[in-house]
Design goal:
Structural class: alpha+beta
Shape: globular
Order of helices and strands: EEEHHHHEEEEEEHHEHHEEEHEHEHEE
Strand order of the largest sheet: 2-1-4-5-6-7-8-9
Largest sheet: 8 strands, antiparallel
Helix content: 25-40%
Strand content: 25-35%
Number of domains: 2
């Protein structure tokens, strides 16, 4: 389980360090930085696939995603006696992301390239990466690092440093390119764990959504990010997953209703008083979205980390309490981060489960955490 998440220099997250539990609810007013925190998590996971640079490019490039304020605020700036203005930069331009758990920690530092005669001179570069054992980085527990183009790891019982790659591309992560069973077994384990993280922020329920159409069903232990394979995912839960938990989740939300999967892998719902089941095209957006969330949260192959962005969208307020109970149940099988501004969902989660509430606020354009002490965290230095 990830116990600490750190982000520095990304949008409004000038320097944020969060302590995480098994079930986490990120809240805050509009514009407080919830979406930035969600995007930072996606960007961190993209490093395991060597997609971090492409993801930054899709957001407008490094210049568009960097913290736009001064490197530091003076006491006078915070007091309002001096206008906010740039200061003499003490460190390099940097976007840093990292996390730590009880067994592994990882950090990546992205920066600007050396100017050159190329149309791609604005692409950011991976300047530094570090992987260590335990929750906090130190000199003795660092076992893999990348500085510029050089990657080295500690090997053998003596823990001596061994150069793995001398010319790694500036856009490729070492955990994606240097993971193998010989010199980079720990990197391989970490890469596969990060690649298994799941993000759900685009579960489609519109009239033309794939989840409303017949599908070709195949064994599906993991629901797709857009919910397009919902029929196959539900049938997989029924056959090899926790079918009883799925039945209870649907009955809890819809007054004893039941769902099944038709011959063409369409989701169908049976409700009291109706002579036939309702097919997926007949279901309301909220009903279909709840079924999609249930299929994601009750996956027979739970990840180590699942992140849901505003799962309450399209849901009637009466469904938020059943959703909270479903989230609490799912958090016993995997770590969950929920980004939400629905106070009723936040309250329900705090009432029914041991959830960690992370409330964000913005002050002078900077996102901070309300009434929370930052966990111990140390960034690797360039």
């Amino acid at each position: 389980m990830i116990t600490c998440l750190a982000v520095a220099g990304y949008r409004s997250l000038r320097n944020v360090t969060l302590e995480l539990g098994s079930l986490n609810i990120v809240t805050g007013a509009n514009g407080s930085g919830k979406s930035s925190l969600y995007r930072a998590l996606r960007l961190l996971s993209d490093a395991a696939l060597s997609r971090a640079i492409a993801s930054l490019a899709a957001e407008g490039g490094l210049a568009s995603t960097l913290w736009a304020g001064p490197e530091r605020f003076s006491r006078e700036m915070r007091a309002g006696t001096m206008p906010v203005q740039g200061t003499v930069r003490a460190g390099p331009v940097s976007l840093r992301l990292g996390f730590a758990s009880d067994d592994f920690g990882y950090a990546i530092d992205l920066g600007l390239p050396i100017p050159s005669m190329t149309r791609f001179s604005y692409d950011p570069e991976i300047k530094l990466e570090a992987v260590w054992t335990g929750p906090t980085l130190g000199r003795s527990n660092l076992f893999a690092e990348r500085r510029g183009k050089l990657v080295r790891v500690r090997t053998g019982e003596t823990g001596e440093w061994h150069e793995v790659v001398r010319d790694i591309s500036a856009v490729d992560s070492m955990i994606a390119q240097c993971a193998d069973t010989a010199d980079g077994l720990e990197l391989l384990i970490l890469r596969e764990r990060m690649r298994a993280w799941r993000f759900y922020d685009d579960l489609r329920t519109d009239r033309d959504a794939p989840s409303r159409r017949p599908q070709v069903g195949t064994f599906t232990p993991v629901l797709a990010g857009d919910g397009s394979d919902i029929g196959a995912a539900v049938q997989t839960i029924i056959e090899i997953g926790d079918a009883e938990a799925l039945r209870n989740a649907i009955a809890d939300a819809f007054d004893g209703a039941m769902i099944s999967v038709g011959d063409r892998f369409e989701v169908e719902m049976r409700q009291h008083g109706l002579l036939r089941p309702l097919s997926a095209p007949e279901l309301s957006d909220g009903t279909l979205r709840y079924i999609l969330l249930a299929a994601a949260l009750l996956s027979p192959r739970p990840p180590e980390l699942m992140i849901l962005n505003e799962p309450e969208a399209s849901l009637h307020p009466d469904l938020l309490a059943p959703l909270a109970r479903l989230l609490v149940l799912a958090s016993t099988r995997c770590q969950i981060i929920v980004v939400s501004h629905a106070q009723k969902l936040v309250s329900a989660l705090m009432d029914v489960g041991d959830a960690t509430q992370i409330e964000l606020q913005k002050n002078m354009g900077e996102t901070t955490v309300v009434d929370a002490s930052a966990p111990v965290w140390k960034w690797p230095s360039r």
